[in-house]
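Bug: token stream looks shifted between consecutive jobs. Job 1:
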Amino acid sequence: MKNAKKKITDKARQLYGKNVEVLVSTLNPITIGTANYWSPSVAKEVFSEMDSHIWKIQYKFLRRLHPKKSWHWIKQRYFKPDKTGQSKSNWILTDPITNNQLKKMSWTPIIRHVQIKYDYSPFNKYLKEYFQKRDIKEFDRNNVAYRQKLAKKQKYKCPLCSKSIADEFEGLEIHHRIPRGKGGSNE
């Protein structure tokens, strides 16, 4: 957590003199990445502490950006209600031009890793459905929304060969791709 705090603080210092859009677009990937890294563990306290730290950073950034403006003016210009519906907070840092909002770590759900039961094996044909459900769950967790939507529409099956696209060994990235060295094309 100390490393994440230091990384965010250093990035914010580098951005002094830039606009809020640059701050939001720089901090969002760091915030989301750190939250995703810690999401399998007990991290709600860490998330709230990091959100508090980011609040202090954005306060300093905005005060430095507009030293002669009142806090009321800054609040009206830069803080809007959450447009995604994840929070009821009216204090989300929002870029006034693009309406991009700073994400909060506390919005990331804690998802525990469920271990495979001791006597279950992927080679047992009677447990095929169990492992398919696990693969689908892992696929949804590790892919962006448009891929999840497409996979769900296809029932997690390839329309060409009817194999599972959620299989951890042969996911979307390598499915039906043949290297050029083995006679494949660039398509």
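Job 2, same session, no restart:
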Amino acid sequence: MSYPDPRYLGQNGETNAVFRPADRGPDAVSPSGDRTHFLATQATTGGEFGLYRVDLAPRSRGAATHFHRTISESFFVLSGQVRLYDGDHWTTGRSGDFLHVPVGGLHAFRNESDDPATMLMLFTPGAPREEYFERVGEMAQRGGPEFQEFLVRHDSFFVDRG
């Protein structure tokens, strides 16, 4: 295995880093109180990946069992306890635990504890997930065909399992 082909062909490098301070507030807040921070979006990474910090409220329902057709999703627990479903069984993830879900892999997550939990979510390649995080709570409350279209548009296919 080797490195990918070069994409930057300049000789002196560029000033193009993007800094996000830790004290910046969340970019999306769900009706349940979950907060999502858009750390690195498809736009800022040129489509390479998307990285989001998710603060789950106590007893958060998180996301039911689903899969993605175009992106992988990975979870890294920063604090608290996050219940993670790998398509076969539920595991309690704690600080430092990691779960990678390849494209098409069933997965789910939730916070069953009375304390908040925080995790990083990594999507590869980058996808425009921001609207999903901003509107999924509102769209779920509406339900119906409009919600189903929203899910398909955001590569989220929910199944009755787990």
